[in-house]
Amino acid sequence: MADLLNIGLSGLSANKTSLAVTGHNITNVNTPGFSRQDTVQATRNPQFSGAGFIGSGTTLVDVRRSYSEFLSAQVRSSTALSSDVSAYKSQIEQLDSLLAGSTTGITPALQKLFSALQTAAEDPANIPARQLVLSEAEGLSKRFNTVYDRINDQNQFINKQMSAVTDQVNRLVTSIASYNDAIAIAGANGAQPNDLLDGRDEAIRQLSTFIGVTAVPQDDNTINLFVGSGQPLVVGSKSNSLQVVPGQGDPTRSEVEFVSGGSRQGVTSLLTGGELGGLIRYRAESLDPTLNSLGRLALAVTDQVNTQLGQGLDLKGQVGTALFGDFNDSALASLRARAFSTNSGNAQPQLNITDTSVLTTSDYRLEVDDETATPPTFKARRLSDGEAVDVTAVNDGSGNYTLSLTQSNPPALPKDQGFNVTFSAAEFAKAESGDLYLLQPTRRGATSISTTLDQPDQLAFAAPVRSEANLQNKGNGVISQPDLQSTGTAIDIVALKAAFPPLTLTYNAAAGDFGGLPAGATLTRVDNKGVPITPAPTPLFQPGQQNNFVLALADGTQVSMSLSGRPENNDRFDISFNQNGVSDNRNALKLADLQNKQTVGVDPTVTGIGTGVSFTEGYGDMVERVGTLTAQARQDSEATGAILKQATDNRDSLSGVNLDEEAANLIKFEQYYNASAQVIQVARSLFDTLINTFR
Fold first, then answer.
1. Which whole-number Å values give the CA distances from 454 to 406, 449, 451, 498, 612, in the listed order?
2. What residue ranges carry the coiled-coil annotation (predicted)?
3. Is 570 left (phi over 0), alpha (psi -120 to 50) or beta?
4. SS (HEC) of 612-672
5. Which residues does residue 466 pair with via DSSP β-bridges, in sequence order?
C-alpha cells in the first residue's frame, strides 16, 4: 500500500505543478516576450521484486520553455531593420513634401523671378516692371531661407531624437546586464530561470528597435551584446554606454560616442539598424546632400545674376549693382571652414567661393600636414566619396596663404573644386600640424542668400556697347549690336569710354576687310560657336552672307558681332559706348536667358554641350533624387514590415500561448490530478481493509 500511495502522491504532485504551469501560461498570454512553458515528466527508478521491476511513480525533471534562439535572432534582426527603415521613411517623406510642394519648393519662386525679368526686358525703362523683379528676387531669397530653415529644423530634431534614443539604449543595456547577473546566479543549480530568460530576450528585442546589436550567447546562459564594429555594450553583468555629443567638426550635427570606463570612441558611422541607425543613415544619405545641393543652387543663382548685372548699365548709365548679397563676405567665409574641437592650434581659416559652376555637393576635410615646411603642406579629402584632393599652398609674400584644391584622379585631368581656403599670417601662426578643418563650401548657401538691391533704376538692363551703320553709307551692309565678352568682373565705364570713343570700322572693298582698327587691335573671323576659323578666310569679309567677328583690343577688351549684306568701299560702322541706352534691353535678355543656361555642376575638364545643368534642372535633379529615395523607403518599409511580421509569427507559432490549447491542458491535468487522487483513495481503502483484518 505504501508503494501505491507514493505512486499516487507523485502523480498528484506532478499534475499539480503542471496545472500551475498551465495557469502561468494563461495569465501571461498578453505579456510581451513571454514564452509558453510546459512540464517534462519522467518515471522514478523502479524497484526490483521477485516478479521483476515495479514502477514507483513519476517525477518532474524540468519546466521547459518553448524557445528557439534562431527564431528569436530573426525577430531581433527584423525588428532592427524595420525600425531603421521606419525612422528613415518618416523623415524623408517630410523632406520630399517640402521640396516638391508647389507652395513650398524653390521652382515656383525661380520661375516667377525669370518671368518678371522677361516682362521687364520688353520695356526696360518701365519702373513698375523693374520693381517687380526686385520683389520676385526678394521672394526667391526668402524661399531659399525658409526651405533651409525647415531642413535645419529636421537636423535639430534628429539631434534631440538621437539623445532620447541613446538614453533608452543605455537604460535597456543596464537592465540586460542585470538580467545576465540574475540568470547566472539562478542557473547555477543547473535549471533555467525561464521568466528571467524571457525578460532578458524581450529587453534585447526592445533594444533592437533603437539600435542594431549582435547577440552572442555564453556557456553560463548570459548573452553579450555588441554594436558597430564590435564595441561591447554588455559583457556578462557589466555594461557600457553610448553618449550623444556635439560633432568635433560641426557642432550642429550630433555624433555618438561609445563610452567604456574612461575611454571614448566615435562610432556614429559604424552604427546601423534600429531607430538610431535610421536617423544617422537619413542624415548622411539625404539631409546633408540636400542642404549642400540647395546651397550650391543658391550660390549659383547669386553668382550668375550678380555677375551678369555687372556687365550692364542701369538707367543712370552706371555699372549695374549686385541684386544679391556677397557670398564671400568675411563672416560667411569663416562659417564655411570649421576647426575641429580636438585641434591643438586655434587658427580660423576662411573659405571663399571662386567658381560656383564647378562646385560639388560634398564636404571636405582639410588637415595641416606640416606647418613648418616651406611652403607648408596640407592634406584634403572629399567626404562624399573619400577621394583624396590635392592642395596647393601659395604665399603672397606677407605670410598669408591661399590653398587651392583640385581633384587629381585621373592626374591628366585635374578638376578645380570651385573654392579656396585662406589663412591670414596671424591665423596661420596659430595652426599646428595635425589640426583638422571641416570645409562646407555649400552648406549654408541657402540661408545666407539675401536680396540687397532696393532701387529699381539700378538694375542693369542695358548693354555697355552699341553699334550702328553710318547714315552716309552707300551699300546695304548691316552690323549687329556688339556683345561685350565678360571677364567675370564688373565692367569699367572709364575704360570702355576710352576704348570706344567711338571706334569706326571702315570697309576696304579691295582687300575684303576693315580698316580703322586702333593700335594693337585684331579682328578675327569666328564660326557660330565663337571659335576662330583657321586658316583665316580670304577675303576676311564675304559679302552677301553673315560674317561673325571678334574684335580684340590691346587692353584685352573683346566684343563679338556680325556683319552682313553688301557694303560699298569706305562704308563705315561705328562701335561706341552706350551712353544713353535707356531703352536697351540686351543685358536684361541675358539675365532672362540664365534660366536655361548650364551653370550648375559644370565639369571643368569637359568642353561642349551637356557638362552642366540649369537652375531649374539642378533643383529638379535634387527633387528627383529625394523622391526616388522616398519611393524606395516606402517599398523598403512594406518589405521589412512583412519580414518582421513573418518572423514574429514564426516565433509565436512556437513560443506563443494558445488559449485553446491551454484550456485543453487544464482539463487534461485536472483529470490526471483527479485520477492520482483516486489512486491515493484506493491505497487508503486497501490499508483500511488490511488494518480491519487484524482487529
1. 38, 15, 8, 31, 32
2. none
3. left
4. CECHHHHHHHHHHHHHHHHHHHHHHHHHHHHHHHHHHHHHHHHHCCCHHHHHHHHHHHHHH
5. 576
CB 600 within 8 A of CB 613: yes
Q: Kindly write down the DSSP assignment for every residue of 458-477, as one continuous string.
A: GS--B-SEEEEE-TT-SS--
Judged on CB neighbours under 10 Å (0-12, 13-18, 19+), 47 is exposed
Residue with cell 524497484: 47
Peptide bond into 128 cis (omega under 30): no
The residues, any chain, with a CB within 8 Å of residue 253's CB and separated by 6 or more, are 155, 159, 246, 247, 283
CA gap 511, 592 in Å, rounded: 40
Q: Is the peptide bond before 535 cis (omega within 30 degrees of 0)?
A: yes
Per-residue cell: 453: 538691391
Give the C-alpha separation, 390 to 392, whole Å. 7
Whether the CB-CB separation of 175 and 234 falls below 8 Å is answered with no
d(CA 61, CA 133): 88
Supply the pTM of this predicted model: 0.90
Give the pLDDT confidence of 319-339 residue by residue, as tens digits: 999 999 999 999 999 999 999
Where along the chain do its domains lie?
A: 2-66+656-693, 71-285+616-648, 337-442, 465-577
Q: What does the alpha-carbon distance between residue 321 and residue 586 come to, in Å, rounded to a whole number?
A: 16
Q: Dmax over Cα atoms in the chain, in whole Å?
A: 163
Of 402, 394, 393, 367, nearest to 381 by C-alpha is 367
Q: What is the CA radius of gyration of the chain?
A: 41
Which amino acid belongs to residue 540? L
- Number of neighbours of residue 533 by Cβ within 10 angstroms: 12
**Which tens digit of pLDDT belongs to each residue from 343-370?**
999 999 999 999 999 999 999 999 999 9
Contact 446, 619 (CB under 8 A): no
Calpha distance 18→675 (Å, rounded): 14
3-state secondary structure 558-574: EEEEEEECCCCCCCEEE
Would you mind telling me the total number of residues written for the chain in this entry?
A: 695
Condensed to tens digits (0 to 9), the pLDDT of residues 297-317 reads: 999 999 999 999 999 999 999
* Bond preceding residue 376 cis, omega within 30 of 0: no
| 639-675 b/e (C-beta count within 10 Å ≥ 16 → b) | ebeebbeebbebbeeebebeeeebeebbeebeebbee
CB neighbour class for 481 (10 Å; exposed up to 12, middle 13-18, buried from 19): middle
Question: 10 Å Cβ neighbour count for 192?
Answer: 17
Give the type of residue at 77.
S
As given in the structure block, the three cell numbers for residue 101 are: 510642394
- The sign of the CA dihedral 383, 388, 389, 393 is positive
3-class state of residue 591 by DSSP: helix
Contact 503/580 with Cβ under 8 angstroms? no
Burial 459-475 (b: 16+ CB within 10 A, else e): bbbbbbbbbebeeebeb
Which tens digit of pLDDT belongs to each residue from 546-589? 999 999 998 889 999 999 999 999 999 999 999 887 789 999 99
* DSSP-assigned letter for residue 313: B
Q: Which of 491, 472, 469, 486 is nearest to 576 (CA)?
A: 469
